[in-house]
Amino acid sequence: MNGYIHPAMSVFRHILPLICGALLFASCSGPVPRDSLRSAALPNSESATEAWSTRQAQAHVSFLDGADLEGRESATRGFSRTASYIAARLKGFGIQPVLAAEYRLQYAAQTSAVTQSSIQLVTPDSLDLIRGEDYLVSGLSESLRMSGQGRLPQNVAGLHWNARLDSLSRNSTWDWRISIDVESGINLASMHIAGFLPGAKPQERDSLIILVAPVDGLGMQGISSWSDGTDTSLPSAALLEVTRRLSELERSWSLFGQTVMIVFASRTRSDCSGVDALLKHLPWDRTYVRAIHLLDARHPQACRWQESIAEHGINSSRLLFHQVNTPAINPSVVGFGTWFPRSDLLRSATIDPAVAEVLRVAENVMNAMPIE
Q1: Does residue 20 have a pLDDT over 60?
Q2: Domain match, 164 and 212 both
Q3: What range defines the domain where residue 153 resides?
Q4: Residue 349 within any structural domain of the chain
């Protein structure tokens, strides 16, 4: 019996050198730098060969700037579809709802809306101009009544003429009449779409990092949706990619000690009331907010982010701005300066640079995230 070796011990004796060799190699090669994990591919992810998914980013842009969403104006049918899409993505990523089983953070708001617009050129053959083809209305805060002769009125805030029509009117003797009705003080229920990724370290979990992107758009012009380049879906698409990446990394390695709140904000266009509503109803102790990362095509001052943050007791220096650049677009319908039909963003010549910008911003945000 003294020379007997149990079969299991015999197997262990053969594999022990292999185990020791593997451990020695790991100790010699050193630990993987934690910063490199931000861009490491995960074997069980949908994009196992790359950190970022071009396919998913393009899908987000195509849907959010698609015709079915009708320009994503707050408190509209198109925005409701937007909220459903983003909530489904957050749930699929494993992000916790901001409320019990609900990603929609609702709040009361007031708005103004154009209820009727009529512009006539009075010639021997009177002509009714068409909104979305001959003129655009955006940001008009009160009703407008004007009439005159000759060139169409210039420098009217919120009213944009087609350049071809404006040129024709310069030397004309046309009579024109403008009647635009704006209803103010409309009470409505608006919403942000938000969720949480809890921190991995109990001692850091109360600290909060907020990632926010505006998701609302400028809505419709008649039967068409136009964009001035500041309300595209690129910031939201970038935030969706960051959220997907954060969730994958957290499931695999628990890298982030602090809690992360992801917010797709509404009412960031005409009156910017959504910014104040977000900070006022923030479901977190504001003294624990460590950083607010804003992904936007407009400078933060356009919606007074710094001032609003300070007014709600958060150090405004904690706002970190990530500029999102809309790619150059050759409009399929010319005449409105920087404005273009929203569908132009989805053309083959534009979608690739748009997606590249989404992924550039997503990577920049990811590189700014603290790893514990």
Answers
A1: no
A2: no
A3: 113-184
A4: yes
Percentage of the chain with pLDDT > 70? 86
Which tokens belong to 36?
């490199």
Report which of 261, 241, 243, 234 is spatially closest to residue 323, judged by C-alpha positions.
234
Q: Which residue, 208, 213, 212, is CA-closest to 198?
A: 208
Both 247 and 351 in one domain: the answer is yes
Please classify residue 157 by burial: count the beta carbons closer than 10 Å to its beta carbon, then call 0-12 exposed, 13-18 middle and 19+ buried.
exposed
Tens of pLDDT, residue by residue over 270-324, are 789 999 999 999 999 999 999 999 999 999 999 999 999 999 999 999 999 999 9
> Would you report the helix, strand and coil content of the chain in percent, each value rounded to 5?
40, 25, 35
**First CA to last CA across the chain, in angstroms?**
55
Residue identified by tokens 């931000």 is: 38
Quick one: 236 and 351 in the same domain? Answer: yes
pLDDT for residue 48: 37
Report the number of distinct structural domains present in the chain. Answer: 2
C-alpha 367, offset from chain centre: 18
Q: Are residues 202 and 325 in the same domain?
A: yes
pLDDT, tens digit, for every residue of 176-201?
Answer: 999 999 998 888 889 999 999 999 99
In a shared domain, residues 107 and 227? yes
The backbone region for 272, taken as left when phi is positive above 0, alpha when psi lies in -120 to 50, beta otherwise, is: left
